[in-house]
């Protein structure tokens, strides 16, 4: 720093943001390793290493790493990243800080899909839920989007938000009706509905991963358009953005991301809603930083919660959906007391 | 808004209110007459004047009237509370469902049912306490030399998430049949409501509704923004606290009586405001829309799927949701 002029404001800010991103990445890597090692029966690093690179199918510890811990960690990473990104995109599209990724009806559609899968088609395996959840999410989002585009003004944030809430109400009513009438379905559904990473095998990961990958690429590519959209539809149009096309692309990204996350881990609403708010305190409202930060911070929160859930009541465990809210909500409320929170 | 515009809005609001009140009355009478034991309309009126057959009298006054009144009053409370929240937070998604108060009531009720083994009115009382305590905590946590609507909503979301996770936890730990009982309460139901539910509800509303309407004028100013309201001579903090307390109390008492019936508080505001078309809070119209949604939904829940009787909360979404969707489309086409 001795030679040359001191860095000016913006570039120093950029360096600080880049360093922050690296720091979150490091935290995420540490949590990933911890997630593979810790649990009802904690495994030393040596065993994990051997399970990965000198796999012995007769060793029960190696099997535990390969068939339980790895898929579980992968689900946490994928679902977390997906929810973080989907949350940012959804709040940007609707310009509403209350918008969570489930707002398009994705969570309620997925839930109804799973309920019908259990009730009508007798599905019992988690990997069987995935397609029902994805289909339900996609259909629900398509309906919300179609309804919001009725009328002259096209898809406005308000119509999208209210349309999503309205369809969510309709779908959860249907879900509740089935659950109240059929105890057996309810008994299975209540464990899916909490949100959990446990018991997912590599099939579930393999089914959902492509959706997350495509959704993530689309979401990251939208950064500049979302920045323009934040200025209002008129200004965004003046800046050369096709507002309608941006909204549609964003909605597709949300469905891919949130649908896949919900299919893998159940409806975990809290992460996608709150992580963007917390991240915004560090990055400010610009989406070019907000998106990657959320993509890394959300899985970190999810893995941390999952590890905590495994350790607090050993040998039993708490589902990740419960723990994320239990540790995330007080933190979020403390953040919300700060002044700038909530401004998009 | 100009004085003439405001006067026009008030006039239109009155007209809308009269039409809605008539619709509520018709829906209420239908609720009294319909059922496995149908009572002819003449006998319904006769029952009130005390000269109907004893069997009709029994069904109308003792069995169906408390249920209809619970639905009507709870709907009125939900609708008014929702409209207050939405105007105050300047956000159409703000409603007692979203900002944690109903979650407080639900978590308390689930604990009463599953952990303490209570039932009936004791659960309602527990829910009321849960809602009020949650609201107080949310307000105190949001306090920072004043309470902004935005901060309140965000803190409320946090509280709602925390409490829903408590409910989910309780649901996964309970025996499945007990858990289903909780689910029934969480859906919101008017089954088995008697005069012991109606009386406290009616007294509370007799105090709270006039209070809400008295504060409608400052609410209209607050909806323009804190600074604008201050410029118009509104004492922002006391008014906001008064409005919040009234709306919370309304939502809490209605939830205690009928359970956290989904969507009534959310749908009533936008529908009421669009009917009045003024841009004001439209508390009266919203409250009546809430009551109407509850009564129609309960009639559908009881009779359409017979012999299965569904809880009202299953139907409010199905009745209110599409209506809101249609209204959104129609208004957009006009405007």
From TrEMBL, chain A:
Q: Which GO terms describe its biological process?
A: siderophore-iron import into cell
Entry annotated with the keyword Transmembrane: yes
Look up and give the membrane topology term: Multi-pass membrane protein
Q: Gene3D superfamilies, from UniProt?
A: ABC transporter involved in vitamin B12 uptake, BtuC
Q: Name one GO cellular component term.
A: plasma membrane
Q: Superkingdom of the source? A: Bacteria
Entry-linked PANTHER family: FE(3+) DICITRATE TRANSPORT SYSTEM PERMEASE PROTEIN FECC-RELATED, FERRIC ENTEROBACTIN TRANSPORT SYSTEM PERMEASE PROTEIN
State the family it belongs to. Answer: Belongs to the binding-protein-dependent transport system permease family. FecCD subfamily.
Protein name listed in UniProt:
Iron ABC transporter permease
Q: What is the lineage of its organism?
A: Bacteria, Bacillati, Actinomycetota, Actinomycetes, Kitasatosporales
From TrEMBL, chain B:
- InterPro entries of this UniProt entry? ABC_BtuC-like, ABC_transptr_permease_BtuC
Which CDD domains does the annotation name?
TM_ABC_iron-siderophores_like
Query: What are the alphabetically sorted keywords of the record?
Result: Cell membrane, Membrane, Transmembrane, Transmembrane helix, Transport
Per UniProt, what is the membrane topology?
Multi-pass membrane protein
Please list every transmembrane segment annotated in the UniProt record, as residue ranges: 68-86, 98-116, 122-141, 153-174, 241-268, 310-330
Where found?
Answer: Cell membrane
- Single annotated GO MF: transmembrane transporter activity
**How is this protein annotated for GO cellular component?**
plasma membrane
Listed GO biological process terms: siderophore-iron import into cell
The family annotation for this protein states: Belongs to the binding-protein-dependent transport system permease family. FecCD subfamily.
Protein name in the entry: Iron ABC transporter
């Amino acid at each position: 720093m001795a030679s040359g002029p001191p860095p000016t404001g913006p570039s120093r800010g950029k360096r600080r943001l880049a360093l922050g991103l690296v720091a979150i990445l490091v935290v995420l890597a540490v949590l990933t390793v911890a997630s593979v090692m810790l649990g009802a029966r904690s495994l030393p690093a040596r065993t994990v290493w051997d399970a990965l690179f000198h796999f012995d199918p007769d060793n029960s510890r190696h099997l535990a790493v390969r068939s339980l811990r790895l898929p579980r960690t992968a689900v946490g990473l994928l679902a977390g990243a997906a929810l973080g990104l989907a949350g940012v995109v959804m709040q940007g599209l609707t310009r509403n800080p209350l918008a969570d990724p489930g707002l398009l009806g994705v969570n309620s559609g997925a839930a109804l899909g799973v309920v019908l899968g259990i009730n009508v088609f007798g599905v019992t395996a988690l990997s069987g839920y995935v397609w029902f959840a994805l289909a339900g999410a996609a259909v629900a989002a398509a309906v919300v989007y179609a309804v919001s585009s009725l009328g002259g003004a096209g898809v406005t944030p308000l119509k999208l938000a209210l349309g999503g809430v309205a369809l969510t109400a309709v779908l959860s009513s249907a879900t509740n009706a089935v659950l109240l009438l059929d105890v057996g379905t309810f008994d299975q559904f209540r464990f899916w509905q909490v949100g959990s990473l446990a018991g997912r095998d590599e099939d579930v990961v393999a089914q959902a991963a492509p959706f997350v990958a495509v959704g993530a690429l689309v979401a990251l590519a939208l950064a500049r358009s979302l920045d323009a959209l934040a200025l209002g539809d008129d200004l965004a149009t003046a800046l050369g953005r096709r507002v309608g096309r941006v909204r549609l692309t964003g909605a597709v990204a949300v469905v891919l991301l949130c649908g896949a996350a919900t299919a893998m881990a159940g409806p975990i609403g809290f992460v996608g809603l709150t992580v963007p708010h917390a991240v915004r305190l560090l990055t400010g409202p610009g989406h070019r930083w907000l998106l990657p930060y959320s993509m890394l911070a959300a899985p970190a929160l999810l893995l941390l919660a999952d590890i905590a859930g495994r350790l607090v009541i050993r040998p039993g465990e708490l589902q990740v959906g419960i723990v994320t809210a239990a540790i995330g909500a007080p933190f979020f409320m403390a953040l919300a007391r700060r002044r700038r929170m909530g401004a998009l | 808004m100009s004085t003439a515009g405001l006067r026009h809005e008030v006039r239109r609001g009155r007209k809308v209110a009269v039409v809605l009140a008539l619709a509520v009355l018709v829906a209420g009478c239908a609720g009294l007459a319909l059922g496995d034991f149908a009572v002819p309309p003449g006998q319904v009126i006769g029952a009130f004047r005390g000269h109907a057959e004893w069997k009709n009298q029994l069904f109308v006054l003792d069995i169906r009237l408390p249920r209809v009144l619970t639905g009507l009053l709870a709907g009125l409370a939900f609708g008014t509370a929702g409209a207050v929240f939405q105007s105050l937070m300047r956000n159409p998604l703000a409603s007692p469902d979203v900002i944690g108060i109903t979650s407080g009531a639900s978590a308390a009720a689930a604990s009463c049912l599953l952990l303490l083994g209570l039932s009936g009115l004791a659960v309602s009382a527990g829910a009321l306490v849960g809602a009020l305590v949650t609201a107080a905590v949310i307000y105190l946590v949001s306090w920072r030399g004043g309470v902004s609507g935005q901060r309140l909503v965000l803190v409320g979301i946090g509280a709602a998430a925390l409490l829903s996770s408590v409910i989910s936890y309780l649901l996964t730990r309970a025996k499945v049949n007990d858990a289903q009982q909780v689910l029934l309460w969480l859906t919101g139901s008017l089954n088995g409501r008697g005069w012991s539910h109606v009386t406290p509800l009616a007294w509370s509303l007799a105090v709270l509704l006039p209070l809400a309407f008295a504060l409608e004028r400052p609410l209209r100013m607050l909806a323009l923004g804190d600074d604008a309201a201050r410029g118009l001579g509104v004492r922002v903090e006391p008014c906001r606290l008064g409005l919040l307390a009234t709306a919370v109390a309304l939502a809490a008492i209605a939830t205690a009586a009928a359970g956290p019936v989904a969507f009534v508080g959310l749908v009533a505001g936008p529908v009421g405001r669009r009917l009045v078309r003024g841009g004001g809070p439209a508390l009266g119209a919203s409250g009546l829309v809430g009551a109407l949604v509850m009564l129609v939904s309960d009639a559908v829940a009881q009779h359409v799927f017979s012999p299965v009787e569904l809880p009202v909360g299953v139907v409010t979404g199905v009745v209110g949701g599409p209506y809101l969707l249609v209204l959104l489309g129609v208004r957009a086409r006009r405007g």
